Amino acid sequence: MKLLPIVFTCDDHYFKYASVVICSIIKNSDRNTKYEINILSEFISDENRALANKMIHSFSNFSISYHILKIENPEEYHLNSYMSLSTYYRFFIFDLLKNYERVLYLDSDLIVDNDISFYADIDFENKAAISSLSIYVQNLLIKNIKHDFTRDYFLNVLLMKDYNEYFNAGVILFNIKLIREQNIDQKFFDAIKAIKNPIFQDQDILNSVLSNNGGVKLISKEYNFTSGMKLTMPRLLVNAISYQLGNKKRNKWFTIYHYVGKIKPWQQYNSDSSLFFYYAYKTLFIKDILQSNKIVFKNSQKIKLWLISKF
């Protein structure tokens, strides 16, 4: 059986959204792969742990572990207006999860809509990580769009040379073994002190360090799809039924759909929000998600979401 270690970094408030991601992994999982879920946080409540454990208990190839850490000198970590300190927790992965040779990091604002077991044995080609290009940042640089993230910042602060090297860090497979052997893990903390105000925070740190140490293997945007798409409930229902009937892939456009940006699908219902709620309705956290975001669906929407969640 293959082994795929997965890690999420979140606080207790955001844990319910990480649980939706975990649910989406379960629903698209490979029976011959063992998925070891690791949660890095400063605190996860007993209530949330119990709900998550209940969610995975009937799946023998899934486990979940909690790693509690304490950030010293939190003022050293630059944050913008809507990010929390938990975004920097990933720099502690290499010590806390050092017994693994590879670990897949996933943001908590995405959905896994196809099997991702290939991450368990994909070839690193001697690179420190595997990720997908950031289309947004690439467009900023190539088109020279007016933005704080300038070409000068890219070249002289991040010390990167090729626009095609900047990746989105929301989905990244770390080569733990190589990173530790080459002491790259310490370079992340050195970069936090050297790059005082990273515009895209820990993502900039990761890009700067890995582009100059170990390198990153870039794969298709299918595995970190960040473009908006009309994911209607009828389309989701057809895809779900097709999958239940034996289709190996739930859809052909993406494997991982990433809700980048400030507005999340649980905050404002958009054309792609149905995908999130398709999986959220399969979790024990749906009531909390709806109540905490004051979401009220029309009866027709509620019935449709409940119906598709059964597939």
Automatic annotation (TrEMBL):
<dbReference type="GO" id="GO:0016757">
    <property type="term" value="F:glycosyltransferase activity"/>
</dbReference>
<dbReference type="Pfam" id="PF01501">
    <property type="entry name" value="Glyco_transf_8"/>
</dbReference>
<dbReference type="InterPro" id="IPR029044">
    <property type="entry name" value="Nucleotide-diphossugar_trans"/>
</dbReference>
<keyword id="KW-0808">Transferase</keyword>
<dbReference type="GO" id="GO:0046872">
    <property type="term" value="F:metal ion binding"/>
</dbReference>
<dbReference type="InterPro" id="IPR050748">
    <property type="entry name" value="Glycosyltrans_8_dom-fam"/>
</dbReference>
<keyword id="KW-0328">Glycosyltransferase</keyword>
<protein>
    <submittedName>
        <fullName>Glycosyltransferase family 8 protein</fullName>
    </submittedName>
</protein>
<dbReference type="InterPro" id="IPR002495">
    <property type="entry name" value="Glyco_trans_8"/>
</dbReference>
<keyword id="KW-0479">Metal-binding</keyword>
